[in-house]
User: Which sequence fits this backbone?
């Protein structure tokens, strides 16, 4: 019964599942996801991370099983983060470029067994640094230009191990250009750079730092990671990264920064990635464990929102669960 003369009724396009399907603006398929894996030395090791239920640190054999599982679900892209023994850490992240580093061995093993997998590295000093910072520390300062050659060397070593893309997560000025030049000089012209373009000094990295025991030993990361209050500055970072040759640009974290994702998407001619970080994962898992939220609905809504905001690519710990959900709802 129509009591009012209302020619405009948006509800007509929501009246059935069929019409909702016709007008749906955004679809998030699992081929847009990058699944982060925490890797360890040794064999047959799988260590749970207390603040990230469902995510483990894994040795090579376990990682291979995880990659196989992911590929079967349609997730083909991975980023590897090394959990390194404290005894191997020093002020200049030497282990990050050591041929002994298990990180390179694991990358090679994945590419040998699953050549169809796309692998992204983490370029930063913090997993290997006794200071827990992403740059060289001198008299309490993080020194940009002393850090750049270390990042360049680490990138070349990673390209040699077979990574498809290098992921600088450090936020030093000029690192994309320096890394591109080093890769090209070493003949790795086919290795890409997915730059952490707008990486904010965020509280949402807490569980990740638990996973790698990589929290800064002193101070914070505010002199290099961005101020959560700023958006224009992200555009400046994006311009620089594009000029320096980045192949994809990332915004990190994702959920509190959807406006930044959109801002970059509107002006950049490169694919935009967003990192749905550890704290975002932990929040949802914790609420679900308490029965305070419907996890099965909230999780895909979260990822869809990041895609709708403009992220072409999403790095997420939910990757496998999302892919399984997608399969269920799209019946394959
Ligand atoms: C550090 C790095 C961090 C993350 C990825 N690389 C943490 C930090 O900057 O301290 C965080 C990822 C996450 O929280 O899921 N190079």
Assistant:
């Amino acid at each position: 019964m129509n009591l009012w003369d209302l020619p405009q009724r948006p509800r007509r396009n929501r009246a059935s599942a069929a019409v909702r399907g016709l007008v749906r603006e955004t679809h998030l398929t699992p081929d847009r996801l990058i699944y982060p894996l925490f890797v360890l030395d040794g064999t047959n090791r799988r260590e749970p991370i207390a603040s990230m239920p469902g995510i483990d640190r894994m040795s090579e054999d376990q990682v291979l099983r995880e990659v196989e599982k992911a590929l079967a679900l349609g997730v083909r892209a991975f980023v590897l983060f090394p959990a390194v023994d404290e005894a191997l850490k020093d002020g200049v992240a030497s282990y990050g470029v050591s041929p002994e580093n298990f990180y390179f061995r694991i990358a090679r093993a994945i590419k040998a067994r699953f050549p169809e997998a796309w692998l992204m590295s983490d370029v930063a000093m913090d997993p290997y640094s006794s200071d827990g910072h992403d740059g060289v520390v001198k008299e309490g300062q993080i020194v940009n230009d002393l850090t750049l050659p270390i990042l360049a060397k680490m990138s070349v070593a990673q390209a040699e191990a077979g990574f498809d893309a290098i992921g600088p997560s450090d936020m030093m000025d000029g690192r994309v250009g320096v890394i591109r030049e080093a890769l090209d000089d070493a003949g790795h012209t086919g290795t890409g750079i997915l730059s952490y373009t707008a990486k904010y000094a965020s509280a949402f990295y807490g569980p990740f730092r638990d996973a790698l025991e990589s929290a800064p030993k002193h101070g914070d990361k505010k002199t290099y990671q961005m101020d959560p209050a700023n958006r224009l500055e992200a555009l400046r970072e994006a311009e620089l990264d594009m000029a320096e040759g980045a192949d994809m640009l990332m915004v990190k974290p994702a959920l509190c920064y959807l406006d930044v994702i959109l801002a970059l998407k509107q002006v950049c001619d490169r694919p935009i990635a967003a990192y749905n970080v550890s704290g975002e994962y932990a929040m949802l898992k914790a609420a679900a464990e308490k029965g305070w939220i419907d996890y099965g609905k909230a999780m895909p809504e979260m990822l869809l929102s990041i895609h709708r905001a403009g992220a072409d690519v999403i790095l997420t710990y939910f990757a496998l669960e999302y892919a399984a959900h997608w399969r269920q709802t799209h019946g394959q």
User: Anything to note?
Assistant: The chain has a mean pLDDT of 96. The pocket of PBG is lined by residues 122, 124, 126, 134, 169, 205, 208-209, 221, 277-278 (CB under 6 Å). The radius of gyration is 21 Å. The longest strand covers residues 192-199.
